[in-house]
Amino acid sequence: MQDHLCDFSSNLKVAVVRRKSSVLLVKTKLIYEICKVFYLNGYISGLRVFHNHIEIYLRYHSGLPVLKLSQVSKRSKRVFYNKKNLQFMLNHSNYLILSSKGPVLCTLGSKPIIGGEVLYKF
């Protein structure tokens, strides 16, 4: 599972640096749910689902990427937080994506109700 997430992060970062309009990613259930979170919150302009792949259409504002993604938990070092520590972490970033029974989006100002593995902050 973690290999797909690492590939997802690196492919997105390379596409943003090269100013690509879209990027093709391997489809897994978790990556699809994360992409839906990005789309529903306006960080990407769209996504298209194929049999084994997902195509994400990136969004730029004044030449700068809207999505600035940072991977927190990696295969070599998994990062888990309970709900008390999540509140502290949310003070240092706007959004967190957790993995506990599927991806959960935590936002600044909301009270986290569960803890879990912190996958991304942005």
Q: Could you explain the architecture of this structure?
A:
- The protein has 122 residues and is of the alpha+beta class.
- The protein folds into 2 domains: 2-65, Ribosomal Protein S8, Chain: A, domain 1 (2-Layer Sandwich), CATH 3.30.1370.30; 70-121, no CATH class.
- Helix content is 30%, strand content 34%.
- The protein has 3 helices and 10 strands, in the order H-E-H-E-E-E-E-E-E-H-E-E-E.
- The longest helix is centred in the N-terminal third of the chain and has 16 residues, at 2-17.
Weakly predicted, low-confidence segments: none
* Helix share bin: 25-40%
Number of helices: 3
Number of structurally distinct domains = 2
For the sheet with most strands, the description reads: 5 strands, antiparallel
CATH topology of the largest domain: Ribosomal Protein S8, Chain: A, domain 1
Order of secondary-structure elements:
HEHEEEEEEHEEE
CATH class of the largest domain: Alpha Beta
The end-to-end distance, rounded to whole angstroms, is 21 Å
* Overall outline: globular
Structural class: alpha+beta
In round numbers, the mean pLDDT is 82
Overall CATH architecture of the largest domain = 2-Layer Sandwich
Q: Tell me the total number of β-strands.
A: 10
Strand coverage percent: 25-35%
Measured on Cα atoms, how large is the radius of gyration? 14 Å
